[in-house]
Design a protein that fits this description.
Radius of gyration: 22 Å
Number of domains: 1
CATH topology: Cytochrome C Oxidase, Chain A
CATH superfamily: Cytochrome c oxidase-like, subunit I domain
CATH architecture: Up-down Bundle
CATH class: Mainly Alpha
Shape: globular
Structural class: mainly alpha
């Protein structure tokens, strides 16, 4: 009788522990699982914080909140160094071995990076509210996690014997620069923070996203579009990252009126690739069309930068304000991120490589975020209208990523083929 009564208690105690261990093993079984999960969480937390700040500063709903650092600096850090990098490291740690026929990264190579970056993310929000010291601790943890992640990638790079390492070399070098730029936030000096913000866009994110696009968009297209001819010119792979560096230098040295000298060639190159990679044909296959639409934003963004620079040269006014920046960051970077993360999540969990109606709908709805932010920067808008557009864009971002995370996050702690 006693045995019969105790047995369910034993089962109740042991089974949850077994389930927790199994879930943790599945969750940590591949780098993209842990990094994409945390990136998904950051996609929500970052915008919840930003909406909270905007509602006070522009919405007039309450007195603006006083943070330990300027909200624009915090927003830049969260987006450039705390949101995108989770997806970048998760993607590159998955693809580096495949790009170069190298060895897979072991848990001990990517878990420390993930844990340090995740802990740094939590501390950052705490530090924003309570203490600059805690904030600096978060920066140091980020540098540690970034360093561990970079070491793991470089280890694969140097051990691989593949003859073509161009894309891996570009992403590896700029992530090394990113680690150095992080020190700008640690210093808390205005000039170094400015370098970290501008450098994060032009020296890290643009080269990484373009190298990935250059490598993967033609490859995936060849498998889905009939009679597809792969066009992957080497000159573009050299031109855009190097011209992006020049743009960053011009912007930091107050020469924005002359960035058109590099923005225009980059814009023409991006539009050329959009055409030869066959954007229209890709729309028949939604999971591929997501990548092509995301890439098309690069040509749009660089065209806006060109117009902005030329207008400044001839009139002395920045008529488009931050519209080109948001076309680049939201339109190109984030759209491609959603497309790539969806593809990797499905493909590496044994699921069908197909974007269902919900995923396709999420992606198309997300395009309005970029459009709202571009419109909100146009001249002549009333401040109230402009502030409402800010909040609307943030709300649509949260809605789209909220649904995406709800749909795909559970996959990261499930066994393959579940």
């Amino acid at each position: 009788m006693n045995v019969v009564e105790v047995q369910p208690l034993k089962s109740w105690k042991v089974n949850p522990m077994i389930n927790i261990v199994k879930t943790w093993q599945a969750f940590t079984s591949a780098p993209h699982r842990v990094f994409f999960f945390c990136g998904g969480v950051q996609s929500l937390l970052t915008l919840v914080w930003w909406m909270t700040d905007l509602a006070g500063r522009f919405g007039g709903l309450y007195t603006p909140i006083s943070w330990t650092i300027a909200p624009t600096d915090a927003h830049a850090f969260l987006m450039i160094y705390s949101f995108f990098p989770f997806f970048i490291f998760g993607f590159l740690m998955t693809t580096f071995p495949r790009w170069m026929n190298g060895e897979e990264l072991a848990r001990k190579a990517y878990l420390p990076a993930f844990l340090l970056l995740a802990t740094g993310s939590v501390l950052f929000y705490i530090g924003l509210i309570f203490s600059l010291i805690i904030l600096k601790m978060a920066y140091v943890l980020f540098m540690g996690g970034w360093g561990f992640g970079l070491y793991g990638l470089l280890r694969v790079y140097f051990r691989a014997k593949h003859p073509d390492k161009r894309h891996a070399a570009i992403t590896g070098v700029v992530l090394g620069l990113g680690w150095l730029l992080l020190a700008g936030f640690v210093s808390n000096e205005v000039h170094f923070i400015a370098i970290a913000k501008v450098g994060g866009i032009w020296l890290i994110l643009l080269p990484v996203f373009f190298a990935v696009s250059h490598r993967m968009v033609p490859f995936f297209s060849a498998n889905a579009i009939s009679n597809y001819v792969i066009v992957r010119p080497n000159w573009v792979l050299a031109l855009i990252p190097s011209f992006a560096l020049v743009h960053g230098i011009f912007e930091l040295t107050g020469l924005q009126a002359w960035t058109w000298l590099v923005d225009l060639p980059m814009a023409v190159s991006a539009i050329y690739l959009t055409r030869v990679w066959r954007l229209r044909d890709s729309l028949k296959v939604p999971i591929l069309g997501m990548l092509h639409i995301g890439f098309a934003w690069l040509g749009i963004a660089l065209t806006l930068y060109t117009l902005q620079s030329l207008t400044l040269l001839f009139t002395g006014h920045l008529i488009l304000a931050k519209a080109p920046l948001h076309a680049l960051v939201i339109g190109y970077f984030t759209s491609v991120l959603i497309a790539m993360a969806t593809r990797v999540t499905l493909g590496h969990s044994g699921r069908m490589m197909k974007a269902d109606r919900l995923t396709w709908g999420i992606f198309l709805a997300f395009q309005t975020v970029a459009m709202l932010r571009i419109v909100s920067e146009l001249p002549g808008l009333d401040l109230v209208v402009r502030s409402h557009l800010y909040l609307c864009a943030a709300a649509v971002w949260l809605l789209c990523f909220g649904v995406w995370v709800r749909k795909y996050a559970p996959i990261y702690w499930q066994d393959v083929m579940n």
